[in-house]
Amino acid sequence: xxxxxxxxxxxxxxxxxxxxxxxxxxxxxxxxxxxxxxxxxxxxxxxxxxxxxxxxxxxxxxxxxxxxxxxxxxxxxxxxxxxxxxxxxxxxxxxxxxxxxxxxxxxxxxxxxxxxxxxxxxxxxxxxxxxxxxxxxxxxxxxxxxxxxxxxxxxxxxxxxxxxxxxxxxxxxxxxxxxxxxxxxxxxxxxxxxxxxxxxxxxxxxxxxxxxxxxxxxxxxxxxxxxxxxxxxxxxxxxxxxxxxxxxxxxxxxxxxxxxxxxxxxxxxxxxxxxxxxxxxxxxxxxxxxxxxxxxxxxxxxxxxxxxxxxxxxxxxxxxxxxxxxxxxxxxxxxxxxxxxxxxxxxxxxxxxxxxxxxxxxxxxxxxxxxx
Length: 372
Fold this sequence. Notes:
Blueprint lengths: L4 H5 L7 H15 L10 H15 L2 H10 L12 H21 L21 E7 L1 H6 L1 E12 L8 E6 L8 E4 L6 E4 L8 E6 L8 E12 L8 E4 L15 E7 L6 E3 L2 E9 H6 L1 E6 L4 E6 L8 E4 L15 E8 L6 H13 L10 H10 L2
Parallel strand pairs: 1-9, 11-15
Antiparallel strand pairs: 2-7, 3-6, 4-5, 8-9, 10-11, 12-13, 14-15
Helix pairs in contact: 2-3, 3-5, 8-9
C-alpha cells in the first residue's frame, strides 16, 4: 500500500503550496544521496520524497490525488508542468546545498550543474631575481605564450555562426532519470552554445591562437621568496572572445654566497684576525649595497654577534630596512714556523690558569697550541 504523500512530506492535507515547497526543500537536502554516501536506503527515500512533491506541487495532480488517491496518477499528468517545476526546484536545492558545504556545483555523476563563465585559463610563470634586486626592487621583462582571439576569424571560430539547435544556445542538455534533473555539457557544441557552418582553418574552430607576448613586471622591493604577483586579464582568452584569465608571476630569489635572509634581517659570517679579537680594532664590513667600518671590542669571542642597524632589507609593507647581523669568525693562524710557535706558547703560558674559568678565545688558542 502506498504511503500518504502528505505524510511523506510531513504536511497537513490543507497545506499551502509554500508550506509544501518548504517541507520538500528541507527533506530533499536532508536525504539527498550525495549527503548520505554508503546508505543504500537513502536513494529510495529520496525518490519517494521527490515523487510526493511532484504530485502535490502541481494543482491539477494534487486535485486528482485528493479525489482518487494514487489512482489519479493513471489519468494523466496534465500539461507536464509539475515535472518541469520539480526539476527546477531540485536544481535550486542542489545549488544551495553545495554553497553551504563550500564545494563546487557538481552532481553525483560528476557533471557541472551550472554552466561556468567562459573565462580563459590562468598562466603561471616563474622568474628569478637576486638579493640585491630584492633590496632595490626591479623591473623584469620576459616573453610568454598566450592564447588570444584568432585574427583570421576574429575569435568566432568560423563563418556563419548560428545558435546550437540541440541546446538552444545554453551549452547544456538536461537529463531527467526518474524524478531528478541533471545538466551536462551539450555534446553537439561542446558547451559553447554556438556552431560554425565553416570552421576557421587558422584556429580550427578553437577561436584562439597561441601568440608570443612581451611584458614588463615591476617587482617591489622587499618581496619574499616564492611570492606571486597576479596580473589580471593577462592570461589566456576564453572561447569565442571570452574574458582572459590572469598571469601569475612567481618570484624566486637566488641563494646568495655571503648573506642569508630572515624576514627583513640579513646575516653574514665576519672573519677577523686573532689579534683583532684579542685587542680590538676596526674592520671593514661588506654590506649588501656598501662597505662600512665597524669597531670590534677587545676580547671578542668566536660566538659573538655584531649588529649593524638599517643594513638589512625592507618588506613589501614596510619600507624601513632591517638589520645586518655579523657572526664573528676568528681566523686561527696556520703554517707557523718554529719561532712563531715558541712565542705563541710563551704567550699562552704567561696568561696563567685564570683564563680557564670561561672557555673563550684564549682557551681555544691553548687547545690549538697543545696540538702543535
